[in-house]
Fold:
Amino acid sequence: MTEFDRSHQHIADHSKDGLVVLSAQLTPLLINQSARQYLNIPEQPNDIFKHLDIYTQKRKNIQFNLKEWICSQSFTAEQSHIKTTILWVKTNHQKMLIPVVFQLSKIEGANQQSENYLLLIQDQSSKIEAEAKVCLIKNSGTGQFITNSAGLITEPNSTFICYTGLNRKTLQKMTYIDWLKAQVIFKVPFDFVMDSLLKTGYWIGKIQLNSADQGLSLKKNMPAILTLSMLTDENRNIGHFTGVIQDLSEIQKAHRRIEKLAYYDPLTGLANRTLLHNQLEKLLNKTQTSPCYSALILLDLDNFKMINDTLGYSVGDELLILVTQKLQKLVPQTCLVIRMEGDEFAVLFKEINEDTSIALTQALGLAYKIQDALDDRYALESHSLHCSASMGVYLFNAPPQEGCSDELIRYANMAMHEAKTLGGNQVYLFEDRLCDLAKQRLEMLQALNHSELDEEFQLYFQAQIDAQGQVVSAEALLRWFHPNLGLVPPCDFIPVAEEGRQIIKIGLWVMHKAFIQANEWHKKYKNLRIAINISPIQFHEQSFIELIIGLIKFTHVNPNYITLELTEGVLIQNTTLALQKIQHLVSLGFHISIDDFGTGYSSLSYLQKLPIHELKIDKSFIQHIPDNQDDIAIVDTILKLAQNKQLTVVAEGVETEEQVKFLRQQSGDLLLQGYFFSRPVPAKMFEQQFLISPNNYSISTASTIQSNQTLFPPSNTIN
Ligand code: C2E
Ligand code: CA
Ligand code: CA
Structure:
C-alpha cells in the first residue's frame, strides 16, 4: 500500500457510511471500516462477496446477491449512480438486521483509463425511526403540536388541526399561549398552569376545548386532557414546547353508558334497585345531621302475572311502560321513581318535612294519588285492560335498627304485601305489627319444615249436595294443628308452604289420605266422589303425574271417583305442558274441576282446549246473591257456559236459605256446598252425618237442615 493509498484508507475509515471501491473486475481496491462492519468482511482476505448476510426483506430472509446486482447495472449519461431500495444486513457487531441502502456509482480509476465502482452503504435506521415517529404523531388519536423556542406552533398534527378547527397556516402564526388563551378553558387558574410548566417543565390536566367553528372541527366544547411539556437543554435553554390533547368525549360517553346500564332499567328507563340503594344510603347518612322525614313507597301491580301469562310478555311490557309514564307525571320533582323488578316499582319521596304529621300526610297523599291514578283502564296496542296497584309506605327520618337500606326496602315491602293480602288496589302504611307477622311467617315456615304430617295434619270434609238433596261428593280440606301455634287456617299456612315448597310433600300426604278415605267410603257406602285441592306448585312439579300413578297403585283407588281441583292460574301458566298433564290425568280417570272460577283473569278461551268436567263458582259471587245484580249476571253466565259444555257446576260458600232457593231456581244440575249445609268436618263426623244416616237436603227440608246444623260443632272449634 502506497502512502497515497494509506491516506485514502484513513479518510475513508472516518466515514460513518460504508465505502467500497471495486475494480471493473470487482476486485476490492478499498474497503473502509464501516463497510467491513456492515458486510462482515474480515481484515484478510478481501473477498467481499463470500459470506454476505444481505436480505431483501426483513421477515422473509430472501438473500440479496450483491455481485449479480453490480454486474447487472448499466450506467447511462443521465444516471451516474444507481440505488437499491432498502436492504437488510446482519452485522456481527449488532447481531440484528439493520436497514441499509446501497448506492453504486462509476468513478474514474487512478490511471484515468480504467473505471472503478464505488459502493456506498448507508444505515437507514434513524431515518426509518424518524418517519415512524412522524407517522405515529399523524395517526395517533391525540392532537399534538410542537413549537419552536419562541413558542410559535410549528408542527400541528392533523388531529390537532381537526380538534381546534383552525387551519395549519393560522395555527403556525400563533404561539401556543395565543392558542391556549383563545380556545382552552382550564379548571385551574391560567397562571397556575404556566407556573407549573415553566418550573417543572410539565403540566397535565382536564380542560374544555372550545374549537373555532370553521367547519373543520368535529365538536364544540370538547372535554379533553391536555399535556404541555417544555423541552430544554442541560443549561435550561428552552428548545421547544409540545402539547398533546386527548379527546375525553368518547370515554365520558362510555362512562355514561356504563352508568346507564348499572343504574337504570333498560325497559322503562327508570332508576333501578342499585340506584335506590345508593340514594337511600345517602339519605340515611344525611338524617344524622338533618332529621328530615323521607318516604319509600313500594308498589306492585295487581294481577300482573296473570296478564303476562295470558296475554304475553310484550303486552306486559307495554303496560309497564304506560304505568311508568303515569308515575313520572304524578310524582313531584324531589322524587325518584324506580323499577325494582318485574311489575314492582318504588317511589322515593326525599326529605319531605321535619314534622312527622306533615311528612306523613304528604307521603300518604302522594301514595293515594298514585293508587287512584293507576287504578284505570289501559289502552294497549291490541288490548284494553284494567289494572291497579297495591302499595306499601314506609316513613323514616333515621337509620333503621340494622342501619341499612335493605331493611327500609323490607319494611316498605311488608306494608305492600299487607295491601295485597287485603285484596289489592290499596295503600298500607308500615306498622311494627307487620314485623311480628313476618316473624310469624318465618316461625310457620320453620314449623312446617319440622312438622310431623301424621300427627299434626288432618283432613276435613265438606259436603256437596245435588238437586235431589243428596250428598254426592265431599271436598277434602286440610287442617294443621300445631303443638305451639294451635290450629293454623289453611289460608295462612298454604301460601307459606307454597313459598317454601313444603306443599309438595304436604300435597302428596293429602292425596294419599284422601285416596284411602275414598276407598273406605266407597266400599262401605256408595260412590261418593272426593274432591282434592291441588296447589299450582304441586301440579307444576315435574314428577306430579308419576307420583299420582304411584299412589293409585299403592292405594288401589278408583280415579273415577276423584275430582282434582285446580285454579285458573295453574292452567294459564305453561299452557301446553299443563294441557298435556291434564289430558294425562283425565286418561287415568280423574275428573278435573276449576276452583274459584271467575276470580282469575277472565280469559275463557282456554276452556275450549281443556278436557275439564266441573266449574266451581267462587264464593265471592255467591255471597251477595240474590241482592247483587252483577253477581247474578256472572253466575248466570257461568251456568250457561257450563250447560253448553256439559260441565257440572258447584256453587261454594252457600250460607243462606235465600241463596239455596235462588240457585236451585237457576239450574237443576247445580251442586251446592257451604255452611248452610255443613262446615268442613273430620272424616268420622262426616261419615256420621252424611253417610250412615243421610238426610235429604232438598229445599222443602231447608228448615230441617237449619236445625241439623246444631249437630255440628261450633264453627270456631272446627274451621
Ligand atoms: P277453597 O278450595 O276455595 O276451599 C273452600 C273454602 O271455603 C274452605 O276454607 C271452606 O272451609 C270455606 N267455606 C266453605 N263453605 C263456606 C261458606 O259457606 N262460607 C264461607 N265464608 N266459607 C266457606 P278452608 O278450608 O279454610 O280452605 C281455604 C283454602 O285453603 C281453600 O280454598 C284451598 O284453596 C286451600 N286448601 C285447603 N285445603 C287444601 C289442601 O289440601 N291442599 C291445597 N293445596 N289447598 C288447600
Ligand atoms: Ca277448593
Ligand atoms: Ca274455592
Summary: The pocket of calcium ion (ligand 2) is lined by residues 475, 533, 565, 595 (CB under 6 Å). The two ends are 131 Å apart (CA to CA).
